Each structure stands twice: as structure tokens, then as C-alpha cells.
Amino acid sequence: MKGMDATTHIDDLASFITASPSSYHAAAETARRLVEAGYTALDETAEWHLSPGDRVVIVRDGAVIALAVPGRVVATTPFRILGAHTDSPTFKLKPRPALASNGWLQASVEVYGGPILASWFDRELEFAGRLVTRDGTVHLVRTGPLARIPHLAIHLDREVNSSFAPDRQRDVQPVLGVDGPEVLDYLARDAGIDAAEIAGHDVVAVDSAAPAQFGASLFAAARLDNLSSVHAGVTALLSFERGDAIAVLAAFDHEELGSESRSGASGPFLADVLDRVARALGIDLVRSLPGSWCLSADAGHAVHPNRPEKHDPTHRPIVGGGPLLKINANQRYTTDAVGSALWARTCAAAEVPWQPFVSNNAVPCGSTIGPLTATRIGIPTLDVGTPLLSMHSARELCHVDDPASLAAAAAVFFTGLV
């Protein structure tokens, strides 16, 4: 694997995941790492003055866009964009989260996206996200292990192993204890403010267990979908030295909800940034985009050893076999023949393996930001990602080699030289 040590990479991915329990934390951690490496944080309300060689980062809520401009720019300089997302399926605190039932203190939550509900039971959960005080100040907060969604004991539900289907309202409200502070009190304590000052909050639950390597080169963590791709983009940007294209990481929020927000892929964030960057550098965006590419990077499904019939019989990628090239005849993924050839050249140059992924016809696949970006921006796009087991579980699984392989391929892709 060219220039990427898998063990070092997976350790850094673990640190990135630990620092990113919510989309807001992920955007902040991405910006922090890049600014520490010499990137300049730009304010969207300020006028932008850019020159060849500049490296900049912009945060909008739980989304972040970063760019590395090559040393020479012409009117048709292309963009090489890695698109990913910062959110994951979870539970979000309701506006009035304090809840009490039969002597138990609980937190009132709403299901966010499409989590595997059963995987969230009997885990120590923390709450993380942002608080906004009455004066408009934003505080990023996290509680550490605080709550648990408890199973009903098998003695009280003898059919639990054959018919467990939790009610999305009744059964998923986590317990905090039998007395003590409410959940907003814990969050306010982390921010160093009084809970009475909280005017709004965007706070989600996350598995508090640390990422872990185990077994035969396996790696488990919360939020691999899709922090494995965000981290690959950050790593590739940090290794970027030269190229003919403007390297861009665009990590959006709200993908798990359909991306329709001001910080989602269906929103104007990327289009706004590309337009402003092009004008600042003298690039003709209409001429530049046809020669540009977007690599939509989102986790995909490895073949499940116990349920192989759920996968296509001739496309059964495995963990450790390299990143996926995701293809769908109905444009749920955007990859076409030209994109396939680009990915093959990219992985060959990066010296990493890759695997094609196609869904079983009887098991409709999900989608990604790829079709949204291609439609909104008009840029050629292909879909790739790290193969996982247990996708949308509270804790997902991959091989230690695959995230580094994706980052190595992304680094080659960013150069625009393949």
C-alpha cells in the first residue's frame, strides 16, 4: 500500500472517531486538524482572497469543506472532490428531554435516520452535540457514558429471541438513573454554563465504548459509516503535495435523513464554495466542471458470512479486499464506465486493491450523496467506500487495512494526475 501504514492509519482513525461523537464535533475536528497543519479557516461572511498554493477550510454547522489549491491555476483548472458525510443513524434528544417513569430518570429521544434499533440496547451511551445559549453562543458538548436503553428481561418476554421488534417510542427511551441531574444539566456542566441558559440544542446519542482492534485484523467502532470516509479525506488532504487539480474534501451533514438541509449535500454549501473559489482564482467554473470529478465516498456492505443470499451471487466483496466501487443500474450510485476506469487507474497508482459492489436485485440498495452532487453541481461522479459488516449498528465492523487503502486511493485521486 503506497505511502499508507494500515496500523498507524487505523490508530489515527480511532482517535478521529473518539473526537467526533456528533456531526458538529466531526466538522470541528476536521477543521482543527487541517488548521494545525497550516490551513486557514475562512468565514463565510467575509470576502475571500485566494491565490495558487492556498489551503483553506470552511465549517457550516455540522458540515465542512476544505480545499488545497495547486501552485498553478488556469481558467479550466479542475476540481477533485471527495464527498462524504458526518452524521450517522442514532437518537436525538427531543426539545424537552427530561422524562420520568416509575421512579426512573430518563431522556426523551427521537429516532434519527435508520439505526438497527436492537444494537443500541444494553450499551453505555453518551450524549454529544451543540448547545446554543440565549445570547446565541454555540457550545460543543459531550457527557461521557451516561445512559442505557435497557432490554426487558427474558423472564418477562419469553419470545424476545424470536420476535424482538422494539416500539420506536415506548422502548428506546434511555435511563440515566433513579435520581440526580437531568440530561441537560450534564451537558450544561460540560459547557460550563447554567442549564437555564440553554435556548436550543442539537444533541445525539453515541456508543461510548472506545474503538477497538481485535481478532484477525478486525476493527470495531461507532460511526464508521461514514467517519471512515471523512477521515480518509482528511488524511489524503494532509498528504497532498502537488497536482493539477484543486483538491476538495466536502463532508456534509444530514445524509442519513436525505441531505435536504443547508449543510446537506442537497443544499447550496458546495455550490456556493466552488463558485466563490472559482471567482477568487479566475477559474471559469462552467468550463472547469466537465473535467472535474467527485468521489462520493460512503461505507458499503461486505458479504455477510451467515446471510450470503442477501448479496449478489457474483459480487460478494469481503473485508480486507480493498475499497468498494459501488455500481447501480438505477442510479442509486453514480458510477459509470468512465468512472470505473478512473477508479481502476487510481487504485493501481495507489497500489491498493478494490472490489466492485452491486446489490442483489431482490434487495434494493440505499443511496449516497453521489447522485445528489452530480445532479446539483453537474460534475462527473463515482461512488466508492469502505466495506463494513453491521452497517447502521451502534457499533460497526471493518478490516484494519481497508480505511488506509481508501485514504491512499483518495490521495492519488486528489492530484488529478490519473
TrEMBL record:
Keywords: Aminopeptidase, Hydrolase, Metal-binding, Metalloprotease, Protease, Zinc. Belongs to the peptidase M18 family. This is M18 family aminopeptidase. Pfam families: Peptidase_M18. Gene3D superfamilies: Aminopeptidase i, Domain 2, Zn peptidases. Its cofactor is Zn(2+). Signal peptide: none annotated. GO terms for molecular function: aminopeptidase activity. Its EC number is 3.4.11.-. InterPro entries: Peptidase_M18, Peptidase_M18_dom2.
